[in-house]
Design a protein that fits this description.
Shape of chain A: globular
Number of helices of chain A: 8
Largest interface: A-B, 41 and 41 residues
Number of strands of chain A: 14
Strand content of chain A: 25-35%
Radius of gyration of chain A: 21 Å
Oligomer: homodimer
C-alpha cells in the first residue's frame, strides 16, 4: 500500500516565497490556514543558485550634535569605495536614546568572496583608526553573514531595497504572507529547524580576551534574529500621503520607541529607527533595524498590542489607497548563526547596539 | 562508435593522493610517467567529506634578543586558549635575516565555523593591542583559509604534523609522488585549473586605505603558493642521526638561506626556517614556511641545483637507512585564492613576510 500525501493546491498565480532550489523536506509544517489565499500582493527577492551567502556590515558613527564628524565619515566612505567594496550600500541617520546623532552605513555584498577580499585588505579596526580614545566620536561595526537558507524578504511592491538590490530579480506574487507565522515560513532553514536561540553569554571569556582598550567585542549567541523593516513614501501624494504621515507613521514611531527603550523584557536587544540620506540630505525612506533574542520573541511582539495597532494602520492604508497605493513597505529578516555575527564597539556609550545587553560590570568599561 | 578511454592501471596496493570525494573530471592530466610506481612510501592526510575549509593563522612576534617578550607571548597564548580556539597549534622560533628573534605560533582549525566564532570574539588587532607603536616588539598575523580542493600533504611516515593532526586519518601508501609535478597532481583543484598566479598589486589602493598608523596590510594575489615543509629527527639514532645532521641538514640549511635571502628572483616571497618548541624549549623538529608567487615558481626551484642537492641527500638518507628509517619528512602545500589570504604587519621591520615584496615607498612606512 502506498501512502499518498495530499497537499493543498495554491492558486496557480501565486508562488511560494522559498525558491525551488532552497526547498527541503519539511519536518516543520507551514502555519498557513487550510485553503488560505492572501488578499494583498507580496514579493520576495530571488537569487540565483550561485549565491550562498549575503554578507552585510553596519558601520555606525555616534557623536554629539555639531561634532566635527566629516573626517570620520570620509574614512568610512573611502573604505566603502576601496577594491572589492560593497555591491550596494546606503546611509542613514538618527538620534539615539542618549541624544547622540548616529550615522549608519549599511554595506551589502552579493556572495562571500568579494566581501572577504575587501575585509582582508582592511587594517584591523580601520573604521575607527583615526578616532581618539575618549574623544567625542564613537564608532561601531556589526557584521552579519547569513546563508541564503537563513534569511527572507517580503515587499509590498517589486521595488528592491537592502540586499534585494543585489538580487537576480523579484518573485511573482507569493502565497507566504498575511498570516501569523508567515515570516518563519519564508525562511528556508525553518523548514526543518526550530531556530531556537542560544544563550547570551556574559562571562564565558575573561574580560581580558574580549575587551582591550576601549574596544568591546560582544559574544554572539545562536539564532539571533535581525530585522530590517522599511517604509518608503517617496511616491505617495494627496490623501494617501496624508494618511501615511498622520495615521500610520505616528503609530510606527510609538512602536519604535517602545522596542528601542523598553525592548529588553520583550527579547529585543536593540532597535534603531533611522531615516535614509542621499548626498547627505534626508529622503522619504525610513527603516528600523532591530535585533531580537529569537524569531519567537519577534513573533510574540508582532502579536502584541503596539504592533497590532501599526499593523492595523498599515492594512487600513492599503485598503484605502487600493491597488494604486504608492506607499512601499518591505523587510529583510534573518536568523543568524553565532558564527555569522560579529559586534565591535569603539568609544560608544553603553546603550549602543548589543552593549545594552551586557551586564553593568562589562558595560562600564565603555565611556 | 564508442570511444573507450584506456587508463594505466596502478598496482592495487597504492592509492591516489586525491581522495575519492575530491576527484573531478581531469582536464589537466597527471604528470606521472606511464607505468610509474614509486619506490618509497608516501602518505596523505585524509579528511571526511564534512570538512571543506582548513583555516590556519600564523601569528609572529619579532624582537631583539633579550627583549621582555613574555607579556606579548602570554597575550597570544591566552587568545589561543579562548573559546572556539584552534583545534591544534604549535610554536616555533628562529632568528631572521635582520638578527631579530621570531616566535611563530601556527594555529589550525578543522572547518570554518569555530575559526569564525573565535575570530568574531577577538577585538580587532588583539594580537598586538598591548604592543607600543615604535616599541622594540613587532607582531604579524598571516591568515589562510584553503578549501580542501586547494591543498595537499605528503608524509614519509603515517605520522601527522600541521593540519594533518586534525585529519580523520592517513591514506595508505600513495602512487602520487616521486616524480616531477607530483605535488601539483595531489592538489584536487589542479585536476582542472592551471593555478596561474595573479598579479601582486602594489598601487591598487591608495596608501590611506591600506596603511594606518604602523599597521600594514598587504594585498594578496591569486594563487599564491604556501609550503610548510618539515623535518623530524626525534627518533633517529646512530648512523642515521649522524647522516641527517652532517649530510642532509647542512644542505637543507643552505637552501633555506638561498630562498630566505635571495628568493625574490625565484618567485619566493618569503621563507622562514624555524625550529619547533615544546614548553619553551627547542625540540628536534624543524619546518620551513615559504610563500611563492605560484606553484610553478616552486616547481622550478625544486628542479634547480640547490634543491636537487637537498633532494639527493634525502634520497641517499632513505636508501642508507632502509625500511627502518626514522627520519620523518612531510609537507603541507596549498595554492590559495586571494580571498583566502590576509597579511597584517604591526611594527615589524621591512623584511618581514610579504612586506619584502612591497616597493620601497610602501615598505618605508614600517620602521
Amino acid at each position: 500500500m502506498t501512502i499518498v500525501e495530499v497537499t493543498t493546491l495554491e492558486p496557480e498565480v501565486l508562488e511560494e516565497a522559498i525558491p525551488a532550489h532552497l526547498k527541503r523536506p519539511r519536518t516543520r509544517p507551514r502555519s498557513s490556514p487550510p485553503g488560505f489565499t492572501p488578499k494583498h500582493a507580496s514579493y520576495s527577492a530571488r537569487f540565483d543558485e550561485d549565491v550562498a551567502i549575503l554578507p552585510m556590515v553596519y558601520i555606525g558613527l555616534q557623536f554629539p550634535p555639531r561634532a566635527r564628524v566629516e573626517p570620520a565619515i570620509q574614512t568610512i566612505e573611502d573604505g566603502i569605495a576601496g577594491s572589492f567594496g560593497p555591491d550596494f550600500h546606503d546611509r542613514a541617520r538618527y538620534v539615539d536614546s542618549q541624544g547622540k546623532e548616529n550615522i549608519i552605513f549599511a554595506l551589502y555584498w552579493r556572495g562571500r568572496e568579494n566581501h572577504q577580499r575587501w575585509n582582508n585588505l582592511k587594517p584591523d579596526g580601520w573604521w575607527h583608526a583615526d578616532l581618539a580614545i575618549g574623544g567625542e566620536i564613537g564608532a561601531f561595526e556589526e557584521r552579519y553573514q547569513p546563508s541564503v537558507m537563513d534569511t527572507e524578504t517580503t515587499f509590498s511592491h517589486p521595488h528592491p531595497e537592502g540586499y534585494a538590490t543585489l538580487a537576480d530579480g523579484m518573485s511573482g506574487k507569493t502565497d507566504t504572507h498575511e498570516y501569523w507565522g508567515s515570516a518563519r515560513d519564508r525562511i528556508p532553514r525553518a523548514q526543518f529547524d526550530d531556530l531556537a536561540p542560544g544563550v547570551l553569554h556574559h562571562a564565558d571569556d575573561p574580560a581580558k580576551s574580549e575587551t582591550q582598550g576601549r574596544t568591546v567585542v560582544v559574544q554572539p549567541h545562536e539564532n539571533l534574529c535581525l530585522l530590517r523593516s522599511g517604509q518608503d513614501w517617496t511616491d505617495t501624494s494627496g490623501a494617501e500621503r496624508e494618511f501615511y504621515l498622520t495615521e500610520v507613521r505616528p503609530l510606527l514611531e510609538a512602536g519604535m520607541r517602545e522596542i528601542s527603550e523598553d525592548g529588553a523584557g520583550m527579547g529585543c536587544h536593540f532597535n534603531r529607527y533611522v531615516q535614509l540620506e542621499m548626498d547627505g540630505a534626508p529622503v522619504e525612506r525610513t527603516y528600523s533595524l532591530s535585533a531580537w533574542r529569537s524569531l519567537a520573541d519577534l513573533e510574540a511582539w508582532v502579536k502584541a498590542d503596539t504592533h497590532l495597532q501599526i499593523f492595523g494602520a498599515g492594512i487600513r492604508h492599503f485598503k484605502k489607497a487600493g491597488e494604486r497605493a504608492k506607499l512601499r513597505l518591505y523587510h529583510e529578516m534573518m536568523v543568524l548563526k553565532a558564527s555569522d555575527q560579529r559586534f565591535t564597539y569603539f568609544n560608544c556609550h553603553n546603550q549602543t547596539g548589543m552593549l545594552r545587553r551586557l551586564p553593568d560590570t562589562r558595560r562600564s568599561k565603555v565611556p
